[in-house]
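Researcher: We're teaching a course module on how sequence relates to structure. For the next exercise, students receive a sequence and then see the predicted structure as tokens, so they can try to spot secondary structure elements on their own. Here is the exercise chain.
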Amino acid sequence: MKIYSCETHINHALDVFVAEQEKFPIMKALSDEEKLSTNCTYCEEAALYLVANE
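Model: And here is the predicted structure for the students to work with:
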């Protein structure tokens, strides 16, 4: 599971991940290049973080 998140939705992304996967996720800051091409899963803002299980 991968969730891309902006600053506003990071807490929601972490909550959703834990609820669905029943594990604590890996949270990674995206590189500047990744930020330009990736939107938040929950809105149209640029994603700043990746919440994932790998």
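Model: If you want an answer key for the exercise: The chain is about 35% helix and 20% strand. The radius of gyration is 10 Å.
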